[in-house]
Amino acid sequence: MNLTLKIWRQDGPQVAGRLAEYQVSDISDDMSFLEMLDVLNEELITKGEEPIAFDSDCREGICGMCGLMISGHAHGPEVTTTCQLHMRSFKDGDTITVEPWRAEAFPVVRDLVVDRSSLDRIIQAGGFISVNTGAATEANNLPVSKPKADRAFDAATCIGCGACVAACPNASGMLFMGAKITHLSELPQGQAQRDARVVSMVNQHDHEGFGGCTNIGECSAACPKEIPLDVISTLNADFRKAKQA
Amino acid sequence: MTDTNTSADLPGGDLFTLGAPIADTKAPDGPIENRWTKAEFNNRLVNPSNRRKLSVIIVGTGLAGASAAATMGESGYHVKSFCYQDSPRRAHSIAAQGGINAAKNYNNDGDSVHRLFYDTVKGGDYRSREDNVYRLSEVSTRIIDQCVAQGVPFARDYGGLLDNRSFGGVQVARTFYARGQTGQQLLIGAYQAMERQVANGTVEQFTRHEMLEVIVKDGKARGIIARDMVTGEIETHLADVVVLASGGYGNVFFLSTNAMGCNVTATWRAHRKGAYFGNPCYTQIHPTCIPVSGDHQSKLTLMSESLRNDGRIWVPKRAEDCGKDPREIPEADRDYYLERIYPAFGNLVPRDIASRQAKNVCDEGRGVGPLVGDFRRGVYLDFSAALARMSEEAVAEKYGNLFDMYQRITGESPYDVPMRIYPAVHYTMGGLWVDYDLETTIPGLFAVGEANFSDHGANRLGASSLMQCLGDGYFVLPNTIRNYLADGPFEPVSEDAPEVVEARQAVEDRISTLLSINGDRTVDSFHRELGNIMWEYCGMERTEEGLRKAVDLIRALKDEFWRNVKVLGSADTLNQSLEKAGRVADFLELGELMCIDALHRRESCGGHFRAESVTDDGEALRDDENFAYVAAWEFGGEGSAPVLHKEDLVYEFIELKQRSYK
Question: Based on the structure, what is the number of domains in chain B?
Fold first, then answer.
């Protein structure tokens, strides 16, 4: 198929960006969206134009490194990661707009690459269980009921791609943060730091410039790992309880 | 033995020279079950107030690097951690699907530390070190305890206890798993432990940084030269000790299951500075990947080996049925070839054997799936029997995310049509040669996880890589490196020292050369061509003739690369073509060494299959008489032949025998 691409080009964080238009042809259904960009980049280099910078690594939907706004949708029209979006989701003749994640907490590095280190700093603020290596008890001494284990697991599948932030009109990081809080709060090991964790993480989140949650639900709708919206309820409940404690 | 200084009587002996034998001198003696305890006691201690004054550089933040950084940080050392991704959480360990082994014997099915040790040595086709493997088996149980304590959500049964499953090459269920995302969950656990140390100030994190050179001063590793991939700045980082946890080099094949950024640069640069490279030709081909669909493809996607627990592998008995809808081929016309050839293990034979048999049936013309050229490269992995036996919900519970992933990539649902799979390049068992302390031949330079060569021999059992990476990072390295650090405080190194200036200059020169060639061909086109050569001649089957041809082709390609590569842009911004160019330059050198190593090893073992060495019934034929050694390669200098040092493998506790899974 033949496509028209409007792609965000920006040389650096301090330089103004613009949408540039490119034509690609002979794109097959089996290509992933990123492979389509690879094809375009090979053509650009051959012509002597600098290729488009974008992030990707595992290309199997798990590392969370890739992430593009594709015609206004985080990761494109399907609920998946950009690397697992295939060109069979598009039609011959389509015009596709490709932009980086937009959020104050994710400054643009170059073209489609953004800086998501704010998410690491939220984890540093408390997204862990404090246990030094060697201090662990025998694993089966800590039984976890299957429903709790399953809910912890569902929350733990967050890949930290930032689609929730990009999809949210407020650029809120609360689905990301709620996923981590729910993962750790469901487990017996996570109880000791439960109150301190939520307060510290929320403070860091606000400090990084993420917006607040107004229950729009775009985050969960765009999440490639389908993290449920109610992790934000867990986050809010834990936060309220911690503040009252 | 290896006391001569000539390589003339070895296959390919014109391409390398023979050096003095090498040996691990650090493993204690005595009963094997006491050796690690003895080493932990004998290794000297560093008191907590002195640890603060000592600094450690760790390159890579996968399971090995992140767990090592967290643990060293907790101990109070000052750690600098580097990764090329935008966050340590993205290291490629995250993509491991199936599980992690541990000898817990929770199922009362006869597992033990000794059995895990035995299975691992046998699975590696008797080309790994007994001491290292025993220690790995020993620490395996503590890994699970540590991860559970961190909140890793392993699968549990209804009693709330941990669940297990079995994996290829073994007859017990010792694999702990978190759906099909075990690597992700373990990595997030290690990452969180490391981020906790970042907050505590013991670990300093450098993301989007690529290590491009090791600094060796007075014979010891004392730091690295790294490039800030955002600003392009070339930075000097000095420390008392350097740890490489930079993963494997399967991307030398271009198409592999590795992440796009996985590369050999850290270990290759160390090799050029004097670290020996162990068994570079040992590449694991994973049997269950989604087949290639076209020329544009950038990588291959793995389907967890755990699928082999319930999926049955078959191809049509007759070549003329291969184009048919598999659902219309009656049971009597299907060849469940693994169950037929290996009745004891069936679909659970180890990876090397499953891969080779898949290739054999496709080579016979019985492959399935679309014609690529005039050839079908695929076999069925069929869940219809499992779906009939278990409910669809139960199958979805176990494998749902893998089925979804398959459907997304191929457009077909495994609930309706059998999956198609084909072998692909996966894990590299070779890596920097290390001794029992995980120290390379450069004092003060350690290598952990997939970056070292030591524990998997010529083939890795499923669910063992996660175990090795976390074992190294949480338990082994922190307890061996202290013996080295106890010699501190070390004399500070000045940034103006000639060794530092020289390393820095070498990096700057290489970058400016790459940017100035301005030829006609893209970096990726060189990488693809190299990958084709490697797959064709150093892939699933190797011959003397093919490998010699590959060496010539790679040399010519390397020559063209340095004359004709086109790298645009500048050095002082994010420049992804420049990053790739440096990595491909190193892959070209490594590829040549892999072929030389494969050429000289005229036996078949594990992932290394030489067509000249097979049994009467077509199985890989090992030659213990002549090849029961580790090949540790020394860099011979620019344009000079590499030097082979042999480490004889001594088996005191396990009897060497022909591997059989029948």
Answer: 2
